[in-house]
Amino acid sequence: MVKLLQVKVQQDKKIRKHPLGATIGFTFIILSYALILNLFTRPNSIWDDVGFYPVMLVTIALIVFGTVMVINFTLPMVLDLQIKHKNLLYRKINNVVLPRMIHQVRQRGKLLTTISLLIAATILVLGITIMTLSYPFEATKRIVPSSVETVITKKNVLNKKQVDNIKSRYHAQVTHSIVLREKIGKPLQVDAKRSFNYIDIISSSNYNRILKEQNRPLLKKVQKDKAVMVNYYTKSGEEKEKTTIELSNLHQKLMINQTTNNNPFAFVNSVTTVVVSDEYFSQIVDVSRNKYSVYSINSKKLRNNKSLVSYIDNLHVDMISSYKKNQEITHANSPTFLMITLIAILLFISVTTVLYFTSRIEQLKVAAEYKTAHSIGYSLDQILMVMKKEIGILFFPPLLIGFLDGVIGIIGFRYIIADAKSSNNWIMLGKPLLLVTVIFIPIYVLVYYYSYRGTFNELHKKIVQ
11-20, 199-208, 393-402: lowest mean pLDDT where? Predict the structure, then answer.
């Protein structure tokens, strides 16, 4: 027992405390998390004000250096505070474990730091993998909001019999929309490269009917002399935005006083959609020179319905469908998904393999000390408890720090993705976080179990001899 307790005295002479480093490391971690969580406020975040890449580099640097300092300085300080509490130290298990833990953390500081960062990378890559599967389908809901959409022309017609057949056969809601394409005086800039010299006008009742069938939020009543512009790029909710548009052919001016992210039509058919009141629409529909019709086909079970798409294809009607778009995205992303999945698996294998063999080697080196402890009265169950705690210091501090880093990284990645504000938070964030936790934590804990159980079984005979 004296020999075991003298380890603490020998180690205290070698170990210097760094309270400043411990505080700085903890502060760096908190600052990095705060920067990532600041993405919640986009487009008014510091990332948008200062610039995405500079803030990203600063955030990564804070996470890396913060993790290094927390492992090397903050964690030993926490253990040292536990040792100073006599009630904690002078227990049969702790008086063996705690003195060696600080020395073990310091000796293995580089390893623990590397493991923490590898766990963070594994969690992040695994989360991105799951998000890669979810995001394209979420994005499709905005790119192609209806299950099937077709623009009616002389060469591209769905007759009444065919429409009635679709309604009855697939239990679908089919909405016929009249859209007025009006030239405007000043081109409308939708992004840095594209501008349009026209807008597509739709009535508010028609707009709300389509959105109801798409199971999306409806628009409040539109004033007679006002209009609502559909955003091409999503913004934070429905914003008040006053813009006057001159309708060249109608010799009228239209006041845009609001925007919305909920587009009724696929962007391939309409980019510059404007919603006006029913009263105003009825005044201009007869005098408008350029108009076209759109059929929007919707149902909860039709977004990935191959049968409906095949039926319309056989009618030789040009259309855009969510099913086809999802298939295109899935095939296009398959190599990327497989590559990211492989990286996540390799990272996880690397982490668990290093921890498993390092813990076994560390424990086998002190087999003689376990034998001494057994000879002075420690039971095998108590020795197993000592072993669990000593191996646990290799497994769980890196898990806590790395897991938090990875989860915060997933949250940040979700808010970096385009159109994040119009997507479902559960699908884009809740589901990946839940699956990452369910997949990673049980397997990691299982590796920890086999590490201490396997090591104990191997040392058992040496201890009792």
Answer: 11-20
- Please check the confidence at residue 133 and state whether its pLDDT lies above 80: no
Query: Where residue 7 falls among pLDDT bands split at 50, 70, 90?
Result: very low
395 and 20 Cβ atoms separated by less than 8 Å: no
Which helix H or strand E contains 177, and what residues bound it? strand 173-189
Helix runs in 242-305, H state only: 278-284
By the 10 Å C-beta count (0-12 exposed, 13-18 middle, 19+ buried), 334 is classed as exposed
pLDDT tens across 54-97, in order? 998 999 999 999 999 988 888 888 777 766 666 665 566 666 66
b/e map of 213-227 (b: 16 or more CB within 10 Å)? Answer: bbebeebeebbeebb
CA angle at 355 for the pair 353 and 356, rounded to the nearest 5°: 65
- Amino acid, res. 177: S
Mean pLDDT over each residue of the chain, to the nearest integer? 84
Instruction: Please tell me the number of Cα atoms within 13 Å of 166 on its side-chain side.
Output: 29
Q: Is 361 left (phi over 0), alpha (psi -120 to 50) or beta?
A: alpha
What is the Cα–Cα distance from 216 to 238, expressed in whole angstroms? Answer: 14
Residue 90: per-residue pLDDT: 59
Beta bridge partners of 321: 148
Contact 185, 248 (CB under 8 A): yes
Q: Mean per-residue pLDDT for 435-443?
A: 92
CB 170 within 8 A of CB 308: yes
Calpha distance 180→289 (Å, rounded): 8
CB count within 10 Å of CB 167 equals 14
Helix axes 94-107, 75-84, angle to 10 degrees: 160
- Please say whether the beta carbons of 395 and 355 come within 8 A: yes
